[in-house]
Specification:
Shape: elongated
Number of helices: 4
CATH topology of the largest domain: Elongation Factor Tu (Ef-tu), domain 3
Strand order of the largest sheet: 2-9-12-11-10-13
CATH class of the largest domain: Mainly Beta
Strand content: 35-45%
CATH architecture of the largest domain: Beta Barrel
Length: about 350
Amino acid sequence: MGAVALAAISCNNQPQGETTELAVPVSVENVRKQSISQFINTTGTAKAIYETTLNSEVSGQYHLLANPSTGKPFKLGDKVKEGQIIVRFEDPEYINALAIESKKLNLEISENEYEKQKSLYEKGGVTLRELRNSEVSRTNAQYDYESAQIRLAKMNVVAPFSGVIVDLPYYTKGTRVNSGQQMVSLMSYDKMYVEINLPEKSISEVQLGQEAIVTNYTIEQDTLIGLVSALSPMISSETRTFSGKLLINNPELKLRPGMFVKADIITAKKDSVLVIPKNIILTGNRGKYVFVVERNNAADDRMIQTGIENKDFVEVTEGLKENERLIIKGFETLRDNSKVKIIL
């Protein structure tokens, strides 16, 4: 009986009606100052800044030239420099008809005659009319020679800008091609652009010169930097959007023409401000709040004011201090003054 009585007394040491509050396990991190950017997300298709298709301007026998960098005939994907000859045509009859050497000689004779007449005119040896006639002859000879040179240059297909060969129809060497046939297509895409459409509500946020972070699923490890280069002032009445362009630096040619890209336009950025994860913010009757751990290991529901934000993080302008212990896991069931146990 004595043992039973002692056991009963021991069990009743805790006053009736009181329960021990279990500490809720939570994870914390210190509130820190860092940089945060606010974005507007958009998508589009990357396009080359320069592109062209070159056709033959004369008829002649087709000859694909060698790439000086490889010593082999030009092929798809080869880089070319501005002014480089890619294809050359041969047509002796066409070249003879141009009479380049004859016109060059005629120009030299006309220039000498003009200088002679000019000297005589200064000495009173010829009239002004005779000098003018000599000048006209020189001008006509110069025009004939330059015109022949232009027509001769059409025997070459020349890259108008530095770029990459993206299409090169096959012709057998020596095949006679006619004027107007496609020879080669070039693109320059070390700089690219993306046409974008943005929601009407963003028109006051997006400005020329703002940076954009550009990504594509095939190059997820790398991000490219773009700039807002053009914005339309007009809102589409059908889509309630306005159009714009992003100019993208693509020095390593990782982004290809036609690729689908995602762009995050940076509309605001702040440095050295308090930043917390967005998903830990709760909302109640009094507004937004988070939980912090006080010195007595009790949770304190802290009302906060927020500033700029993105999909993952938000700036806190009021309510928190640097290095306070912010609860980032286990906060869902907490109440003000709940006991907590910090775990890793």
